[in-house]
Design brief:
652 residues, alpha+beta, Immunoglobulin-like, Jelly Rolls, TIM Barrel, eight-stranded antiparallel sheet, 35 strands, binds alpha-L-arabinofuranose
Length: 652
């Protein structure tokens, strides 16, 4: 089936295209941070996803405030094998840490083959034959003779894949660790912690990680997902949200200080997306991941107000925005300043010392910080944004602060947000849009019209409402216009990034995953091709379209092209998009680049408009890399519905 995009080319669009032609002949510098990623814990992206913890509800902190029906025993079961007798209860009187109040008391009257707890992970625990899994548990013996605890990986039917013992327990809380090596592969294994001896035991923070986390980090990330993100070569990573940051009401604002330090001391909190954030993937881990993948960190903090969709009004669009009382704003603003100190401050500073305690004395080189996320532009928001913004500017004048202009590409909050950013001279503003493919095709002139004297743009969230090739190719066409306007658009990130199969709350997403695999969408490949082929100088008038389906316009919007140079490699990179249903010929004139090497690299992504990559057919479409003979002036015939990137060695 061929999808037809309704192309609406208005008179003003044509005018806009004429203005494009005023771009410098000799290239203009564009942002070197253009293409990045936006990570939000939505769709089980963090817990059960990128964060490699395999045990769900490891700290018995689940509660109905996270999700209806959840409680401290969610995903846990009491087991009494071989006629064992015992009970389990949840207590709070003597926790491992005051900020992590719940733990269990296991009372074993008769051990049998083992009385204890069984955890089913996030839809099962996926293990591989020969794989090593690091477990840890906080435990103490309350009554009875000191007795061993047995830790086992088992199948649903009780087949034991691996077992280890903690020979004896102390009477005080103590962390015990070990490694389990599985002898089998099972996507739905379970973890058991049992005792065969009579006694009373306290248990908390029962944890299991694969040993091969990304970069082998302790408390680390799932390597295949982290690598998929790393392979995008993102220039920056925005985190931790999204709506998650300004949360479901004031008590649910993201509190970064609760997310650092030993994991047993972190404060879990409900996620606006309807589950719990263990915050095991906290600010330290975010910064570290950014560093590991060479992406600049871009944290976003709430602007002193909660999400306007708070209070269950998400679907009906009511305003649930609540503001931090002004008398508490000093404390809140200080938290934001402390975050910057945590990232960049010397080890002699209070928060720099905390970063060093976590094993990273060096700065994380924070350059960007977002304040607010598509907030309603109320007087309450503006007052609080100003307080935070002015404080950051005063203490950290070089920090590139990113403001917010609502959830849409236009409209009241957008207009008010831009006006407000202008009044305050905010360096960048964060635009969001989830639109159909036709919108992306038709709006390629959007940034040609932006004034170069105002705030720069961060396109923090965008997607064309689908994962079919027609969606991805429309994004590709739009991205050529983002490159062309890389002097006014500083950064751009597709959203959302990750979604777990069976827990997807928002479609489309860039990468889908389950416990055993991942599905890279066509949108992913477009993002990747643009990101790895980014340049720092934009050249106009390099590509001419031979056929125009709309002769009244200088550009046919089903054809798009850009040309950049990457000064690090000296490569000239030409991107050609044909979003139409017929072949189109394009002339490429590289004569102004001096010497051109004949052998160029060519990446091609093409397919039918309704084609998809899926778990069952993950490689349906993927980029094909070939070599191509080029010359100073050459003609290239683009396939229907194709993205072609030609990477040419040149000397100018
Ligand atoms: O990307 C999903 C959501 O879309 C983000 O949390 C929010 O900022 C936007 O509405």
């Amino acid at each position: 089936m061929i999808f037809l995009i309704p192309f609406i080319l208005s008179g003003s669009s044509c005018l806009a295209q004429k203005k494009v032609k005023t771009i410098l002949q000799n290239g203009k510098p564009i942002s070197t941070d253009l293409f990045g990623v936006f990570f939000e814990d939505i769709n089980y992206s963090a817990d059960g996803g990128l964060y490699a913890e395999l045990i769900q509800n490891r700290s018995f902190e689940y509660s109905p405030s996270d999700k209806n029906g959840w409680n401290p025993f969610t995903s846990w079961e009491l087991v009494k094998d071989g006629y064992g007798i015992g009970t389990v209860s949840v207590e709070t009187s003597l926790p491992v840490h005051a900020q992590n109040p719940h733990y269990v008391t296991l009372s074993v009257e008769k051990g049998g083959e083992g009385v204890g707890l069984r955890n089913s992970g996030y839809d099962g625990i996926s293990i591989k034959a020969g794989g090593n899994y690091n477990f840890s548990v906080f435990a103490r013996q309350v009554r009875g003779n000191s007795a061993p605890l047995e830790i086992k990986l088992v199948s649903k039917k009780g087949i034991v894949y691996s077992r280890a013992f903690i020979p004896e327990l102390s009477g005080e809380w103590k962390k015990y660790t070990g490694t389990l090596t599985s002898d089998s592969t099972d996507a739905e294994a379970l973890l058991m912690v049992v005792s065969k001896s009579q006694g009373v035991f306290n248990l908390d923070m029962i944890s299991l990680f694969p040993s091969n986390t990304f970069h082998n980090r302790a408390n680390g990330l799932r390597s295949d997902l982290a690598e998929a993100i790393a392979n995008l070569k993102p220039k920056f990573m925005r985190f931790p949200g999204g709506c998650l940051v300004h949360g479901d009401g004031l008590t649910n604002l993201y509190q970064w200080k609760n997310t650092i330090g030993p994991i047993e001391s972190r404060v879990v909190q409900p996620n606006i997306w309807g589950y719990q954030q263990s915050v095991g993937l906290g600010y330290f881990e975010y910064f570290q991941f950014c560093e590991d993948i060479g992406a600049k960190p871009l944290p976003v903090v709430a602007a002193g107000v909660s999400c306007q969709n708070s209070g269950g009004s998400w679907r009906i669009g009511g305003t649930g925005q609540r503001a931090i009382p002004l008398e508490d704003m000093n404390r809140y603003t200080q938290d934001v300043l402390d975050l910057i100190e945590y990232a960049n401050g010397p080890v002699t500073s209070t928060w720099g010392a905390k970063r060093a305690e976590s094993g990273h004395p060096e700065s994380f080189h924070l350059e960007y910080i977002g304040i607010g996320n598509e907030d309603k532009q109320t007087p309450e928001f503006r007052e609080r944004f100003s307080l935070i913004y002015e404080a950051v500017k005063k203490k950290y004048p070089k920090m590139k602060v990113i403001g917010t202009v609502g959830p849409s590409p236009d409209g009241k909050d957008f207009e008010l947000g831009w006006k407000f950013a202008g009044e305050l001279n905010v360096p960048l503003v964060d635009e969001h849009y989830y639109m159909n493919p036709g919108w992306f095709i038709n709006n390629q002139n959007r940034y040609d019209l932006y004034k170069r004297t105002e705030s720069k743009v961060y396109i923090g969230e965008y997607a064309s409402k689908g994962n079919r090739w027609i969606n991805a190719i429309s994004e590709a066409a739009f991205m050529t216009s983002v490159e062309r306007n890389g002097d006014v658009v500083g950064l751009a990130s597709y959203a959302p990034l990750l979604a777990k199969e069976g827990h997807t709350q928002w479609n489309p997403d860039l990468i889908y995953f389950n416990n055993t695999g991942i599905n890279l969408t066509l949108n992913y490949y477009v993002q990747q091709l643009f990101s790895v082929n980014q340049g720092d100088t934009y050249y106009d008038k390099i590509v001419t379209f031979q056929q125009s389906t709309n002769p009244t316009c200088l550009n046919d919007f089903t054809q798009a092209a850009s040309c950049v140079k990457d000064s690090k490699t000296g490569d000239v990179i030409v991107k050609l998009v044909n979003a139409g249903n017929e072949k189109k010929t394009m002339d490429i004139d590289l004569s102004s680049f001096g010497i051109i090497k004949q052998n160029a690299l060519c990446y091609l992504l093409t397919g039918k408009s309704d084609a998809l990559n899926s778990f069952t057919n993950p490689q349906n479409i993927k980029p094909v890399k070939t070599s191509l003979k080029v010359s100073k002036m050459f003609t290239y015939e683009t396939l229907p519905l194709s993205l072609t990137i030609i990477r040419i060695k040149a000397g100018r």
